[in-house]
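User: Sequence for MFS transporter below. C-alpha cells please.
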Amino acid sequence: MTGTTTAAARSRAAVGGANRWVVLVVLCVSLLLVALDATVLHVAVPSVTEDLHPSGVQLLWIVDAYPLVCAALLILFGTLGDRIGRRRVLLLGYGFFAAASAVAAFSDSPMVLIGARALLGVGGAMIMPATLSILRAVFPDRRERAVAIGVWTAVAAVGAAVGPVLGGFLVEHFWWGSVFLINLPLLAVILPLGRLVLPESKGSSDGPWDVLGALMAAAGVLGLVFGVKRLGAGEHPLGLATLVPLCAGAALLVLFVRRQRRRANPLIDMRMFARPTFSVSIGCIVLAMLALVGLELIAVQYLQLVLGLSPLETGLRLLPLTFAAMAAGATGSLTLRRVGPRRMVSGGFVLTAAAVLLLVMMGQHDRPGLLTAAFVLLGFGVQSTLFGAYESMLSEAPAEQAGGAAAIGETSYQLGAGMGIALLGSVMNASYAPAMSSVKGVRKADGTAASQSLGEAYQVANRLGGPAGDSLRSAARHAYVHGLHVTLLVSAGLLLLGALAALRLPRIMECAAPGADTAAGTPEAVAVPAAAIPEQRPRERHVPDLRKAAASRAPADRAEPPGKQQPAPGRRTALVPRGPSR
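Assistant: C-alpha cells for MFS transporter:
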C-alpha cells in the first residue's frame, strides 16, 4: 500500500470516529484564547497607564502591537503550516502564547509589555489559520464541516464579547496583569490534549518554501494594516506617517502577487481568486467586518456619552448582539443546507442593513426596546454573513491549500475591522466636526478642540461652565447624533452592496458523496495518532469483470472456448468504482 493510500485510509478512519469532535473542542478553545486577547486589554488600559506611565505613543503600541503583528504574520504561518504540518505550527503557537502571557503579566516597563504583546501576536498568527485548516482536514464532509464552522464562528463571537467583561472583572478584583494570566490554565490543558488528539496534516510540499515571498506578504500586510489603523485614529490621510506605510504595504502586496504568479510552486495559488465563490467570499468577510467593528465602536460611544450609561450597563446592552451571533453560528449549518450560500450571505447582509436603518430611529433619549431589537438583528445578520462566507471560502479552496486559504480569510477579517474603524470613523468625524466650529457663545479655539470628539467636547464644556458650557454640550450631542445617523446610512449602503455581490455565490450547498474528499484525486496527507483510529474491518467490494460481461453478450458463432477468451483491444479488464471528482 502506498503512502498516499495509507494517509487517505487514516483520514477516513479519523473522520469516521467521534474523535473529530474532540478535535473541534481543542480548536475552539484555541480560538477562544486568540479572540479573548484581542479585546481583554481594552478595559485594563487605565490601570496600565497608572502603573507603567507609558507615553501616548507607547500606549498606542501596547494596544495595537498584538493585532498588527498577528495580521502581518497570518499568511506566513498559514502557508508554513501547509508545508511543515499544521499541528506542529499550532503547538508551537501554544508555546509562544504561554511564554508571552507570562511576560506580559509581570511586565515592569512599557517596552517589555509592547514586546510581550508582539510575541502574543506571533502566537496568535500561528494559532488562527491552523485551527481553520485542521478543521478543514478533519471534517472532509461538507455537511459536518458546516456544523463545525458554525461552532467555530460562535466561539469567536463569544470570545470577542466576553473579553471586556472578563477583563473588567479581573482588573477590579486583582491587577491588570491578571488579564494575561488567565491564558496559562487554558494552555496547560489544551497543550497536552492537543498533542494527544490533534491529527497532523500537510498540503503540497513540492519545491522549496518561498521565504522571500512570505516576508514580502508579512511586510505588506503590516504596512497596510498600520496605515488603515492610523486613518481610524483620525490621522490625516496625506500625512507621511499614514501615506508611506499605506503605499509601501500596497506595493509589497502587488509585488507578492506577481511573484506568486511566476513561481512554479507558489505559497498561495493565485488562481483561487479567479474562482468567483472564493473571491466573493473574501470580499463579503471584509464588508461584514467593516460594518460590525465600525458600528460597535460608534455604538459604545453613543451608549456611554449620549445616553450616559456606565461601562457595565453598556456591556449588558451589547449582550443581545452577542447572543444573536451565537444563535446564528449554532444554526448556521441547518440554514446553509436549506437556503444555500447565496441566500444565506445575501440575506445576512440585508438583515444587517435593516438593523442599521432601525438604529437611525435612535436619538438623544434611551429606547431600550428599539436598541435591543436592532442589536439582535445586527448580530444574527452579521454572523450569518460571516458563517456563509467562511464556509464557502474554505470549501472552495483545495484541501492542500487550506492553510493559505485560512490565512487569507483571517487577514481579510483583520483588514475589514481596521477599515471599518477608519472609514466609518472618518464619516462620523466629517459629519460631527463642522457643527462645532460656530457654537454661539463659544470661542473658536474651544470649538476646534470640541470638534475632535464628543468626549473632548464634554471636557471643554466642563472647563467653560455656565451658559457657554451648556450650549457647547447640547450642540455636541446634537452634532454627534446627526453624525451617527449619516454614518448608519453610509453603512447600510455598503451592506446592500455586499448583498448584491453575494448573488454571485452558488445557489445551493453542493456536497460530495461521503468519502469523496479522500477517494477522488490526490488527497492531502493526514497523519492521525494511532489511538484516534477506530478499528475497522475491510469491506469486500464487487469488481465487475468486463471479460465475462463481453462473453455473455457475444454471438454464439463467435464464442471462443473457455480459457482462450481475450479482452477487446483498448478496453480495461476491470472497472473499479471511483468517487466523484472534486
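Residues 466-501 form the longest helix (36 residues).
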